[in-house]
Amino acid sequence: MGRYFAIRIARALLTIILVVTFAFVVLRLSGDPSLMILGPEAPPEVLAAFRKAWGLDDPIWMQYVDYFGAIAKGELGRSMRDGRPAIQLVLERIPATLALTLPAFAFKVALGIPAGIYAALNRGSAIDRAVMITAVAGFTVPSFVLALLLVLVFAVQLGWLPSGGQEGWRHAILPIATLGLGGAAVLARFTRSAMLEVLGQPYIRTASAKGVPWRKVVTSHALPNAAIPTVTVLGFMVGTLIAGAVVVESVFAWPGVGRLLVVAVANRDLAVVQCILLLVALTMVTSNLIVDFLYGFLDPRLRAKGAHA
Amino acid sequence: MSPLVSIEGLSVAFNGVPVLHGVDLSLRKGEAIGLVGESGSGKSVTWLAALGLLPRHARVSGSVRLDGREILSAPAATLDQVRGGRVAMIFQDPASALNPVLTIRKQLCEALALHRDLSGDALKVEARRLLDLVGIPDAARRLSAYPHEFSGGQVQRIMIAMALAGNPDLLVADEPTTALDATIQAQILDLLSQIRREMGMAMVLISHDLGVVAENCDRVAVMYAGRIVEEAPATALFDDPWHPYAQGLIGALPPLDGPRRRLTAIPGTVPDPSKMPAGCAFAPRCTVASEQCGVGAPSLAPLGDARAVACIRAEASRRALLGIAAE
């Protein structure tokens, strides 16, 4: 068991290093931050001074070494725009993002999982078909289209809700609905297929054959087995809590991490972008580790394998 | 003596395609019946249908009575009492027949709690006794293990223990040894016979293996394409099968003694349920089929002592032989 997790943690660290390296290289090859921040009309000597100050004239490998050296000391760099520590800028935005993604996550779980279970138990019924059509629509429609649609209906036509900004809870409803509906659709489809797979297993028939009432067959025999694949999707959704709202935050002018990322990329504010990506990689990797741990908890077969690995 | 279970005109259709065409079968208390036939002949479907274990899209009709009480259209609560409590069933593939995420104790105690007035420590004691009974060594410790920690033969033993939990009057064993090694097969069959004798339980042994059935059953019903085509005491069937299909099955078995002979094979394959021939379903493969065989499906006609056959040719020749006038 210990080794099972040691290997997974080592793999997680490697993933983070790869993500950060990739971001580092791509950002530095994709444009000159001095031009972006100071503008193309800035005098050459000002640009040169800027580049020198931020170490942008150094060879890329030297910048890379410096960057990792700083990370080792716990420094994630400063924003080139206002000189404040990048981590501080990012941390300031996290509550706003979580204010959208956490309720959206709860919404996905509360709607998607029961809908999927219900559809599976009533396979082929009108309700099953309705759930599935909604689910397919829910995850094929891009979130910005759904967002604009919701704005059109609830903000423009009906005038019930604001179309953007962050003044109060009413402003959060449409962004949360946009995030939640798409996620609920994915979860519903996934839960349904996991349940159908499990319901077709011989051990379900065994349970019925020994006289277990159907309701209990579902709750104590089918659900614990269907939970195993569903946890994978949930883990992925937890991984997107920090940066899963980039599009939605942009559409609704919501000042979260996603918007910060869009602005920072446009400005080539290197330290800020890198800081966000590092954070995203960390949450993804952590949620994957939690999923691995949960697998061991939910599935005794994996627990055994882990013990021997 | 009134039969324990009597099945009459049991028919099943999946999505409008009939797979079981009016099966009649009855079973006395303590009796062991073998159900043989190729896969797809309806052996398992007969009992899954009788116990209401088929998927919802299956159309089931006919009558299944347990001690004279109709159970086919019985409410779910009644069926839950019957299943496991009066009639238990074990299945072919032990590897997937137990829930992989629950311990053996949980699965065994669940069955005990449902059908016996036991709780707390009494449950655990009884669970341990059942595991001992089916020959799982170190039962006390093994109760907290999960299904994947047992071999196929052991899981089948656990399945049997679970089936016995409700003290059933009938155990339906659906190909209980097909997925197991030959040596383990014999052990499981011995265990089943021994338990059956001790508990006075009736048994239906579903198998495609004639030898297994011959050794363990009093009576045998041969199924073909969703119908029982011959029913006879086990020894009578093996000595002198009447139905051409049963003759074919037994002709395909190598004789243990006597001169060596060429094994005969039945030509062709079982017809697809959706393309069933008119008349006798076996006629296209039958060496003695006549024109008349294509006209109507023969019904199972009782002939002589405890035998019945569904074949107009066999029926005619037996009647001539036995001197019974045609009805």
From TrEMBL, chain A:
Pfam family, any one: BPD_transp_1
Cellular location(s): Cell membrane
Domain ABC transmembrane type-1: 94-295
Coiled coil: none
Membrane topology: Multi-pass membrane protein
Classification via InterPro entries: BPD_transp_1_N (IPR045621), MetI-like (IPR000515), MetI-like_sf (IPR035906)
UniProt key word Transport: yes
Highest taxon in the source lineage: Bacteria
Gene3D superfamilies: MetI-like (1.10.3720.10)
Assigned keywords, A-Z: Cell membrane, Membrane, Transmembrane, Transmembrane helix, Transport
Transmembrane segments: 12-31, 98-121, 133-160, 172-190, 226-251, 271-295
Family matches, as CDD domains: TM_PBP2 (cd06261)
PANTHER family (UniProt xref): DIPEPTIDE TRANSPORT SYSTEM PERMEASE PROTEIN DPPB-RELATED
Protein family according to the UniProt entry: Belongs to the binding-protein-dependent transport system permease family.
Protein name as catalogued: ABC transporter permease
Protein's organism: Bradyrhizobium iriomotense
TrEMBL record, chain B:
Database matches in CDD domains: ABC_NikE_OppD_transporters
Localization, UniProt: Cell inner membrane
Membrane topology term: Peripheral membrane protein
Chain ranges passing through the membrane: none
Record key words, sorted: ATP-binding, Cell membrane, Membrane, Nucleotide-binding, Transport
Entries under InterPro entries matching the protein: AAA+_ATPase (IPR003593), ABC_Ni/Peptide_Import (IPR050388), ABC_transporter-like_ATP-bd (IPR003439), Oligopep_ABC_C (IPR013563), P-loop_NTPase (IPR027417)
ABC transporter domain ranges (all copies): 5-250
UniProt GO MF annotations: ATP binding
PANTHER family, per database record: DIPEPTIDE TRANSPORT ATP-BINDING PROTEIN DPPD (PTHR43297:SF2), OLIGOPEPTIDE TRANSPORT ATP-BINDING PROTEIN APPD (PTHR43297)
Family: Belongs to the ABC transporter superfamily.
NCBIfam families for this protein: oligo_HPY
Protein role: Involved in beta-(1-->2)glucan export. Transmembrane domains (TMD) form a pore in the inner membrane and the ATP-binding domain (NBD) is responsible for energy generation.
Descriptive protein name: ABC transporter ATP-binding protein
Organism: Bradyrhizobium iriomotense
